[in-house]
Amino acid sequence: MNLVMIGINFKSAPLEIREKMSFKNTEIPKMLRCIKRLIPDSEVVLLSTCNRTELYAAGPTLAAYKDSLGLIFARGDNFEKYFYKKENLEAVRHLFAVASSLDSMVVGEREILGQVKTAYTCGLEAGTTGNILNPLFQKALKVAKQIQTNTDLCLGHISVSSIAVDFVQKIFTDLPNKTAIIVGSGETSELTLQNLVEKGVKKVLILNRSADRAKLLADKCGGKAILFDLLDDYLPLADIVISSTNAPRCVIHTDAVRKAITARHRRPMLFIDIAVPRDIEEGVGELENVYLYNIDDLREIAAENLTKRRQVLDTAHAIIQENANGFADRFRVQSFGLLIQQMEEAVNKLKEAELARAFSKETLVSLPEPCRREIETLTHRIVNRILATPKIAIRQAARNGQGEEYKKILQHLFGFENSESEETNDHKQTP
Amino acid sequence: MYITLILAILAAGLYGLASLFSVIFFFRAAGSGEKKSLCLAAIGALCLVVILTFQAFISHHFPIFTPFGALVFYCLSITVIFLYVSIHHDTRSLSAMLIPYVTVLIFVATMHVKAGQPINPARYSIWLDLHVLTALVGYALFTLACAFAVTYLIQDRQLKRKHFGLIFQKLPALETLDKLIHGQIVYAFIVFTVSILLGVVLTHMNHWQTGWLTDPKVLATALTWFVYGVLFYLRLNADQHGRRMAIITIVGFICVLVTFFGVNMLTHSIHNIALTDYPGMAK
Predict the structure, then answer these.
(1) A271 touches chain B (CB under 8 A)
(2) Would you state the pLDDT for residue B210?
(3) Which of A149, A281, B76, B118 is the most buried (most CB within 10 A)?
(4) Containing H/E element for A173?
(5) Tens digit of pLDDT for each residue in A168-183?
(6) How big is chain A by its Cα radius of gyration, in Å?
(7) Are A47 and A54 in contact (CB under 8 A)?
């Protein structure tokens, strides 16, 4: 198959190296064309996300450039020790796992599929994909979709902030018209707020005992800082309340929420209490149309989702294995098509030469045209009949994994090995 | 009659298959089974259209005055409105509740296939057609409102009890359901009110005496209208939302069931024989 993958990801390299190795969208086509110029018969696709940068290259002469490919990929830097390299079937399996998010930092996240698709489209537009990478990436996208559809891998989030946003989306749909109140500050609440803003929440009110911190966070997310003491007055406006203060006692009381929900005409309210000790009285959750979740609830769901994902990992890996083997088999048979073609060309060349020699002889030179044609057809039929059985045997051997043995024998018998090595030498001299 | 029966059995079969698909795929994490279920239901609805057209062609009036015709039209209305809602909102998962309900009704209707009942031409008018049609469309809208209300209560329960399994994932958001309940109630209440007004007009046109005022169907209709009237007021004027509104919607639908099915089955109403004869009517 002559497929090589060189990559760097969150497992193999620290963030600062990944940052240096990442490519901007505008840089990717340039890099692809640069490699294509250096190795003209190659196919390349570059996948660059915040957690990984991977180069997929394929081509008949790639083996000769294996070492220099790493240097080109690193743009001259010496990051080889952070790289991982995979070839042929292993590279196919890796790409399928990446596209299916089995190799992601958060297993089951869906964004990677889009990123793989974008990387492939970029290669396609740059004209650096071909007979190997086109079917490979199309298959990878199909396998990823198959895993998403047939397994529970992508169901349920495993980070506290994403689970909180899940709740928001199961209660509210018109997020741009919803108001979120953030009481106190903390990493998780900031992350949750960030997720909410990304999902479309536009009205954000920040309440903090420190006016400066409230202002800082408000500026960051385009919200409004409010005095902490006005919390009860602002509660009726809130559809979503995320609380994470360091207060030793509850700051949101049942009575205040009861009044708020009446003032809101019983429109639902969602409270997410990330603080330890708790910020919101337990009674709040018992009120009608009020939904309260604390950090333990969110962590419990995260753990459940993680367990579920681990359970389906085996199924997902089995799907990948099956598809990778299928792809490799199909490809092996296809690659032997080239050998068969070479064999046919060699025999036909021989046939043409012998026919020409025979027809130039004195005894046959005056042969009428229909007779000549008949002889040509006859030789053509003989050649085809001779080649038919070996062709079937080669294809069968390719399917059974014995292709390489047959390939060597045929190359030796027909003398293809010399021409192949000459071809490789030619390419090496080109750059 | 045989053509109608064959078509009804075909429609029942299609709806049965759609129910099976919708229920099976409701309990699966992913897949396009719900789409297939809705497609089958749509084809079933087409069969119902053919049945009604065929019956109208034979009897020369809109065939909704028999239990079979009324049920077929009611089921058709539910399917069409639900398909429309499902195109605009993510409510496909509700097919697991609505399609089986419609299927059961179509099976019941199939058992009541009869040749068209003769209609007293003196009693029949276009206003009577409109009266029954609007009532049936109103019932269909109330049915959908009830389905959304039940779903609202299920999703509310999942959220309150912190059950975040497949049902939680599959059902729509509370806000979507709240809006849909409201939407159905507004249209249903308007259509149902029009139906009642048409009924009043008909009593005057036919010079009926006041006997109809104590008719069980009229009383049940008045109760249904009152319940939905309260709901209409609470939502439109008092801007109320949430669980209680869903519960009142379900109560309203129980009244609809009594009005539509219960009265016909348990009591003797002028609506059962209005097209033929009624002792209290002026002739």
Answers:
(1) no
(2) 62
(3) B76
(4) none
(5) 888 998 889 999 998 8
(6) 32
(7) yes
CA distance B199 to B197: 5
Q: What ipTM is given for this predicted complex?
A: 0.81
Q: State the nearest Cα–Cα gap between B14 and chain A, in angstroms.
A: 26
Angle A387-A390-A393 (CA atoms, 0-180°, nearest 5)? 150
- Token pair in block for residue A92: 């196919």
Q: What are the chain A neighbours of B30 within 8 Å (beta carbons)?
A: 148-150, 152, 155
H or E element, residue A268: none
Q: Which residues of B touch A (CB under 8 A)?
A: 29-31, 155-156, 159-160, 162, 164, 168-169, 173-176, 238-245
Q: pLDDT tens across A359-382, in order?
A: 888 788 888 888 888 998 999 999
Encode pLDDT of A242-261 as tens digits. 988 888 888 899 999 999 99
pTM of the model: 0.67
Give me A56's structure tokens.
């997929």
CA dihedral (B12, B16, B18, B24) in degrees, to 10, reads 170
Pairing verdict, β A179-184 and A203-208: parallel
User: What tens digit of pLDDT does each residue of A301-339 get?
Assistant: 878 777 877 778 888 888 998 898 888 877 777 667 777
Answer for the pair A271, A280: CB distance below 8 angstroms, yes or no: yes
Nearest to B3 by CA among B46, B55, B56: B55
